[in-house]
Design goal:
- The complex is a heterodimer of chains A (393) and B (117).
- Chain A is an alpha/beta fold.
- Chain A contains 16 helices and eight strands.
- Chain A has one domain: Rossmann fold (3-Layer(aba) Sandwich).
- Chain A is 45% helix and 13% strand.
- In chain A, α10 links the parallel β3 and β4.
- Chain A is globular.
- The model of chain A has no long low-confidence stretch (mean pLDDT 94).
- Chain B is mainly α and 117 residues long.
- Chain B has a domain of 68 residues.
- The chains are: A alpha/beta (393), B mainly alpha (117).
- Bound molecules: S-adenosylmethionine.
Chain lengths: 393, 117
């Protein structure tokens, strides 16, 4: 697994802290793959037969599987390890970032913008779905401000997310957006967006690959969370990437009608709400130029999944502070996209093989023959395929 | 403006407990934390050995300043993975036993058969 690229604002930690972080990554991967990989075996070989013996039938849905699995000691051990490891991730990066403050905030504030910009809106209201829960159990979520001009949450996310992924998304933690950008270019080579907008950019790790892929485009990125944007702006400047960050709510964008050729997002919808989701799609429809495209990478809908896979992937909804996760995965994206005013035949969906973790043949195949992977239960970061959908306007 | 910043949870909610006795969840958390500290200690020893190999002397500053390159990191990850497998063997074994269950049935049938003949 690669080491994280160390830009000027990244906080790793002391000798021991860094090694602790690297260990937690490996531990998390072990729990996810080795122990998590056994959950299905335990279900098929122990839990399901016992249920059948008791009730004279097999579990009829995801909820029954969930209940039965959580009564089994393997399901419990796996779950308690998952939750605990999640907390260990944040705990392993926290002390170094606390120590780096308030100097880090001063340095972020002092950044001389040479490439891009950041525009904050102190009057913006934080959506309830972000305020209501520390998503992924990240202390303070993306938006909490602990000081004036605070960038703490950005630093926490940058390092914590890398530890969480165990480096699986590459040194820049950008596996998904790099894959998306490469895919868009490969499948629609004549599409040359002049203005690009990312929704829910957090610290811009998912924005940078689009700057690289479309060097002639003007790239904008929005998020509601100010600490993430401040940090993301400093990071982008350190990497010499021209990005214009704005603090906005994706449900209600301050951009003119028809002002972007490409609007995209990386795994943001499942952290919003049932009310917000269609509003964001409608904003995409409004702000896109005609002939423009939107593309969103998200969790695979559970309609394409077996009950067991649905139970497995929805675990996060129950225990990882993801209140909308389960509802979101039950929705049919095509229905909502057309509901937002896009035409049926302009809709597309595809599972794209991860650039780093698949063969170039598999990638090329998904370009010439786009299909949606069926029943591949995988949480974010676990899969080697990214379910992407969108539409042309 | 140099107020100290503490990174505290804001809305994390109640920590889920999975076992009937939440002390078991706590015990697992302690074991996992301990596993991390052992690994950190091992890495420190590894750093010391590498520095001694290279320079024959040591200073605390050298140890603190040591950062793994990709090669060292790959080696350490190999060792960490082996260590984790040994530590959590009992859980992996359970999975393997379950999957091998069919074979066990065959074996028991064979035993019965052999006992008879
Ligand atoms: C999972 S993170 C996105 C990760 C990021 N795209 C990446 O790939 O690194 C979700 C982000 O969406 C933001 N977000 C959620 N709802 C939003 C909304 N209505 N408007 C703008 N940003 C929103 C959150 O603040 C958070 O930064």
């Amino acid at each position: 697994m690669p080491l994280q690229h160390e830009h000027d604002f990244l906080v790793t930690g002391s000798h021991d802290e860094m090694n602790r972080q690297h260990y937690v990554s490996r531990l998390r991967m072990h729990i996810l793959n080795q122990i998590g990989g056994g959950v299905r075996d335990v279900y098929e070989n122990r839990v399901k037969p016992a249920f059948e013996k008791d009730k004279g039938r097999i579990p009829k849905n995801e909820t029954e599987i969930h209940k039965a699995m959580m009564a089994d000691h393997y399901g419990r051990t796996w779950s308690t390890m998952m939750v605990n490891c999640q907390d260990m991730v944040w705990d392993s990066v926290r002390p170094a970032i606390e120590r780096a403050q308030p100097d880090l905030n001063d340095r972020v504030r002092g950044v001389n913008a040479r490439y891009g910009s950041v525009t904050l809106n102190p009057d913006i209201a934080m959506p309830r779905y972000l305020e209501a829960a520390d998503i992924h159990r990240m202390p303070g979520n993306y938006h909490t401000e602990r000081a004036v001009d605070d960038a703490t949450q950005g630093a926490l996310y940058d390092r914590g997310r890398f530890v969480y992924n165990g480096g699986a998304a590459g040194p820049f933690a950008d596996g998904i957006p790099r894959t998306m950008a490469a895919y868009i270019k490969a499948r629609w080579p004549e599409f040359k967006p002049k203005r690009i907008l990312e929704l829910g950019c957090t610290i811009g790790t998912s924005t940078v690959p689009f700057v690289d892929a479309f060097p002639d485009a003007e790239v904008h990125a929005i998020d509601v969370s100010a600490p993430s944007l401040r940090y993301g702006h400093a990071r982008a400047e350190a990497l010499a990437k021209p990005i214009h960050f704005h603090q906005m709510n994706a449900e209600d964008l301050d951009f003119e009608d028809g002002s972007f050729d490409l609007i995209y997002s990386c795994i943001i919808f499942h952290e919003t709400s049932r009310k917000a989701y269609p509003k964001i799609l409608e904003e995409c429809q409004r702000v896109l130029t005609s002939g423009g495209m939107m593309a969103h990478t998200e969790l695979t809908p559970v309609a394409n999944m077996s009950d067991f896979d649905a139970f497995y992937i929805d675990w996060d909804a129950y225990y990882n502070n993801e209140p909308f996760y389960k509802t979101y995965t039950s929705l049919d994206p095509q229905e909502w996209v057309t509901g937002a005013g896009f035409e049926q035949d302009k809709f597309f969906q595809v599972s794209i093989p991860d650039l780093d973790r698949s063969s170039s043949d598999a990638f090329a195949d998904s370009v010439s023959n786009p299909t949606v992977a069926d029943s591949k239960a995988a949480r974010v970061g676990e899969s080697a395929r990214w379910y992407t959908y969108g539409a042309w306007k | 403006m140099s107020d100290e910043i503490k990174i505290t949870p804001v809305n994390r909610g109640k920590r889920p407990a999975f076992f009937d006795d939440p002390a078991i969840d706590q015990l697992m958390a302690i074991v996992m934390a301990m596993s991390a500290e052992m690994s950190v200690l091992y890495d420190r020893v590894d750093t010391i050995e590498r520095l001694l190999d290279k320079k024959g002397t040591l200073s605390r500053d050298d140890i603190e300043a040591f950062r793994p390159d990709q090669g060292v990191e790959d080696e350490r990850n190999g060792r960490r993975n082996d260590y984790i497998s040994r530590l959590f063997r009992i859980i992996r074994e359970e999975r393997e036993t379950l999957v091998a269950h069919d074979k066990m049935d065959e074996y028991n049938a064979l035993m019965d058969e052999l006992a008879k003949s």
